[in-house]
Amino acid sequence: MLFDALPREPSNPAPGVVHVPNFLALEEQEALVAQAREIAQSVAGTPVAMRRPYVGTGQMTTWMLSLGWFWATKPYRLVREVDGHPTPPIPANYQEIAAKVMAAAREIDPQVGATPEVETALVNFYPPGTSMGMHVDAEEESDNAVVSLSIGEETIFRIEAPGGTVDLLLMSGDALVFGGPARRARHGVMGVRAGTGPAGTGLTEGRINITMRQVHAPSARYANGL
Ligand SMILES: O=C(O)CCC(=O)C(=O)O
Ligand SMILES: [Fe+2]
Predict the structure, then answer these.
(1) Structure letter (DSSP) for residue 51
(2) pLDDT tens per residue across span 8-56
(3) Cys bridge to 124: 36, 160, 205, 209, which one at CB 3.0-4.6 A?
């Protein structure tokens, strides 16, 4: 984009929403893309493969790979396996990344709350030009924050946070947290801008977004003896 050279500062555009630009170095982005690709290849052709889910309005344009818990649709639910195929596990480095993002976010807005225990992660691939409609991340019973990483082409992320709707430009390497009062805010991706991704991420086109989330509330974990 035209103003690429301008520094982008961390921001707190609404209570519980923190944007940390350039959180991931290019090498970290490349490593995350390579790791996700390897996992996707390991489950290709199985029922837990990366797929474009069918939702109420039709088939999503976004490709999704579920880790930890599989995000099943019709009806929405989180499951451990599909037809005997286990959901691939969360890679060991995700929890550490989530903790680092949350530490940075808490400095800016303590309302983002505790670091989620990363029990599920979605690796979304958006081909150029694709979007994700407005929705609430509602399937997790935990109220701990969602940690989101963006790699590749840029997009506008819209969130209807308490206090007003916010549009954020998410670029390659950015981290975003929505927690506390914004945890159940409606949000969506307004369209991935073709040709805006930097070289060196391992992506030739499109955008990858990784969200890390806690599924269970602590009380439920205790009740289940986990
Ligand atoms: O791609 C993004 O930035 C957000 C993805 C999202 O909202 C989701 O996976 O639930
Ligand atoms: Fe979401």
Answers:
(1) B
(2) 999 999 999 999 999 999 999 999 999 999 999 999 999 999 999 999 8
(3) 209
How far, in Å, from the CA of 182 to the mean position of ligand 2? 12
How many angstroms is it from 225 CA to the middle of ligand 1? 31
Taking the model in full, what pTM does it have?
A: 0.94
**What is the span of the domain harbouring residue 87?**
14-213
Evaluate whether residue 226 is within a structural domain: no
Residue 8 in any domain: the answer is no
| Ligand 1: residue whose CA is nearest its atom 1 | 209
Report CA(41)–ligand 1 centroid distance (Å): 22
User: Annotated binding residue at 187?
Assistant: yes
Classify the phi-psi angles of 72: left when phi > 0, otherwise alpha if psi is within -120 to 50, otherwise beta: beta
Return the HEC string of 151-208.
EECCEEEEEEECCEEEEEEECCCCEEEECHHHCCCCEEEEEECCCCCCCCCCCCCCEE
In the chain, the number of structural domains is: 1
